[in-house]
């Protein structure tokens, strides 16, 4: 998720693409996201982006924090592979995203 993890735009804003409600399917040669939905949250402020903000956005989509087992991210310029998925579990991780 180079240093620009998301589609970061001018003035410190970026668009966040969330895949939710599905699962990661581990195939023999590749992985893919199966089922669920895709939601774009436009113009997220990178100055305020944090793990807390991620959980807040997910709560707005109907996912209480207690029901979320893990969060993952990847650079949108990289292919969807196991090696490119990064755990999102601390605010340090949120800084690595952009």
TrEMBL record:
This is PB1-like domain-containing protein. It comes from Stylosanthes scabra. It comes from the Eukaryota. Residues 14-98 form the PB1-like domain. The lineage of its organism: Eukaryota, Viridiplantae, Streptophyta, Embryophyta, Tracheophyta. InterPro entries: PB1-like_dom_pln.
């Amino acid at each position: 998720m180079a240093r620009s993890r998301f589609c970061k735009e001018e003035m410190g804003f970026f668009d966040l693409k969330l895949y939710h409600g599905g699962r990661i399917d581990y195939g023999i040669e590749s992985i893919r996201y199966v089922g669920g939905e895709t939601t774009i949250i436009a113009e997220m402020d990178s100055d305020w982006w944090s793990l807390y903000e991620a959980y807040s956005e997910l709560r707005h989509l109907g996912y209480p924090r207690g029901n979320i087992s893990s969060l993952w991210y990847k650079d949108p310029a990289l292919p969807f592979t196991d090696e490119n998925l990064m755990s999102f579990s601390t605010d340090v991780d949120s800084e690595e995203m952009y």
